[in-house]
Design goal:
The protein is of the alpha/beta class. The protein has seven helices and four strands, in the order E-H-E-H-E-H-E-H-H-H-H.
């Protein structure tokens, strides 16, 4: 049976920030449908006011899917704020989610801010992940700050 995969990005990220991943993922699961969504204030909804509540973001995502004629259950792959949305979605409408792959959830109810982003990383995060215009440098910094994987892990 074909699945519908929904990819959700993080704070101030639009679906274009997935870059070529959706196409690569779609090629790996040709029988399925892969969908990326934007949140209000980002991407195609850049002129809309950004919600301040995760539940409102989930409602917007669900409305987008409904407007596209989609219905669950969905397989969700979610990063950062998107993962926080997936957790909320699972609480609100668990029947709509068949699978949720959560990456860097940053959910405050599970750990305090200083455990989710250690103070020793603030300067590097600001310099390389926020202010840099070099995409590879940004993504490398984020991966190194948020993961225990190192380059040697990718060589095997």
């Amino acid at each position: 049976m074909a699945r519908t995969w929904v990819l959700l990005r993080g704070l101030v990220r639009e679906k274009r920030h997935w870059e070529t991943f959706p196409e690569q993922f779609q090629a790996a699961v040709p029988q399925d449908t892969v969908i990326t969504l934007d949140l209000p204030g980002n991407g195609e909804f850049w002129q809309e006011r950004s919600p301040t509540r995760i539940a409102a973001m989930v409602a917007h995502a669900r409305e987008q899917l409904h407007a596209q004629g989609r219905s669950g259950p969905y397989h969700v792959v979610a990063l950062s704020l998107g993962a926080m949305m997936a957790v909320q979605w699972l609480c609100q409408a668990p029947h709509e989610i068949a699978f949720a792959g959560l990456i860097n959830t940053s959910a405050s109810r599970f750990s305090p801010f200083w455990q989710r982003l250690r103070p020793m990383n603030y300067r590097r995060l600001l310099r390389e992940a926020v202010l840099s215009r070099d995409t590879l440098r940004k993504e490398t910094a984020i991966l190194e700050i948020t993961s225990n994987m190192r380059e040697r892990d990718f060589l095997h």
